[in-house]
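User: I'm curious whether this sequence folds into something compact or stays loose and floppy. Could you predict its structure so I can see for myself?
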Amino acid sequence: MFLKRFLAATLLLIPLIATHAFADVRLPNVISSHMVLQQGKPVHIWGWAEPGEQVEVSFAGQKKTTQTDENGKWLIALDPLKANKTPATMSISGKNSISLEDLLVGEVWVCSGQSNMEWSMAQTEQGKDEIPKANHPQIRLYDVVGHINKPQPQDDAPGTWQACSPESVKKFSGVGYYFGKNLQAKLDVPIGLIGSNWGGTQIEPWTPKVGLDQVDSLKANAKNGGIYNGMIHPLAPYSFRGIIWYQGESNCVSGDTDIYTDRTVAMVKGWESVFQQDDLSFYFVQIAPFPYGTKFNNRNKAINAESLPRFWDAQTACLDAIPDCGMVVVTDITGDVNDIHPRNKRDVGARLARWALAKNYGDSKMVYSGPKYKSMSAKSGQAVLEFEHTGSGLKSLDGKSLSQFMIAGSDKKFVEATATVAGNQVIVQAKGVSEPAAVRFAWQETAVGNLGNKEGLPAIPFRTDSW
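Assistant: Here's the prediction. I'll summarize afterward.
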């Protein structure tokens, strides 16, 4: 008899328990204590509660209310905030109340890509020395935990905000950490870094359908990306300044060169749409020299010694195809060209930070790019090359004669060439080529060219032809 009464009472309580749980105001994991809110932009705070429930958000002298929709979802946009290094509290209330503690206001960036972005601080070349010193309470880290691929967009994903410490930084992206460290040191405002990475992935599953629909060449096969569904959608529409991206190796292996520019455009447009921000900066890393033709030809017979240079071309084209876009070249800091994971992430992060400091934060004196090919003219058997981003002048980065230059005449046969710096030009010539028609620089998969500017940034590999 006692058991029957107990079960009956329990069954009666189940609807009440379920209703109460659903009525509670809930937040996604990315909206939590210790987070950094983006300064200077509307700040999106969202979550769930009972349909029709009124929700109020109070923060930094602002108090805003909204009502949940028929699905119990709600979204409030706080007015733009000023940077604040003093921890503050946010109150969120409906039928229950939530208090978020230790919130800062500053600059927020998403750090995403495949393994070279996922590569943790503990795995980096400088990690052993850097990790014990990584006490930076004004830098906050949020990492999407695990690798999540879902057929439908997810509302939430596991993760927690943590102050940067020797313990919390160990597993965080090395590139992301060094990027954030450089920003925080220069700007003296809180920095929030959101990591969402998965080694070995192509760019397609990171792209939402809304982005594919905006690119003509990709519309026909537009489908939601499973990794976007599981690892990016749960973060939207968190407000942030921009994206740093290190990915491409897997697309290079797949022979995806010709369409990679369009795929990158689609991803950026898609993220801007779902995060409700049309002004996101996008700074990425050109993948490092590596013998793809040798290592992966058995997997894909289309991969050869020119696959990587052509992929570099597709990445470089993103600079013109995507607004607020920047690219970091790493040919000079690759180390072992047989390692697809260069261990020096410190300089990669620092070079990405140069783009942000110059383009987002007004450092007009910052040289943020290595030389980029501009034009070629032929004169007296010589090819005269003009460049953008020469900084305070062109130079050989290692003090030796310029290397990795090839030249061809109208026969389209390339031969090794000599190249010399002449002011902000490079003069290229070779015996037997009396009428230069084209020049290529570092047009080999393991090429480590030494042309750069006096600020130490390497030139972007290029070709003047389209043969």
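Summary: Residues 2-23 form the longest helix (22 residues). The first strand starts at residue 36 and ends at 38.
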